[in-house]
Sequence to fold (222 residues):
Amino acid sequence: SQTIHQWPATLVQPVGSPLSLECTVEGTSNPNLYWYRQAAGRGLQLLFYSVGIGQISSEVPQNLSASRPQDRQFILSSKKLLLSDSGFYLCAWSDPSKSSYNSPLHFGNGTRLTVT
Amino acid sequence: AQRVTQPEKLLSVFKGAPVELKCNYSYSGSPELFWYVQYSRQRLQLLLRHISRESIKGFTADLNKGETSFHLKKPFAQEEDSAMYYCALRTDKLIFGTGTRLQVFP
Fold:
């Protein structure tokens, strides 16, 4: 069966420090991968999505970047964190071989990032 | 613009009362709509999708294109329904609303 792992679960970082959040998927090949951010009162905001290795689409211009060095690995990064980067970050995957209706998003447990 | 609106941040009801979580969307194409749910200490997960016209855990949602709505309903709420509910619209990506927290009191 497919599983998604996301770490760390919580992170407290000072302003100006770098960030690296990692997400890996097991049990499937060539998944679509997503990074969402959940900020208070703003719902789930899509940050990045990827349909293949090295293919990243950015949805919102910001201080963050994403990379997909391997088929089932998705990394969210920042060179210098801002206070506004605080939030709850969710990684998700879907199966591109199925129609959109038969391929829901499967979410990780999330990472709560606090920038101080 | 593509948008999903959930006007209620919090909805509180007593056990056995009917529940309706509101969702409105803005999309010029043919919409694909979903409800996702996150129970306490669990992952966000798919609850139901409109095309299936399914009832999951007693919940149903009907797409009303005239009103551009996809409200989630349950005739008799249970305490275990307490959770965060997100309405989502699929275009070339999945767009979520801000979510509604449902609290069901005993």
Observations:
- Residues 3-115 of chain A form a domain with the Immunoglobulin-like fold (CATH 2.60.40.10).
- The first strand of chain A starts at residue 3 and ends at 7.
- Chain A is about 0% helix and 55% strand.
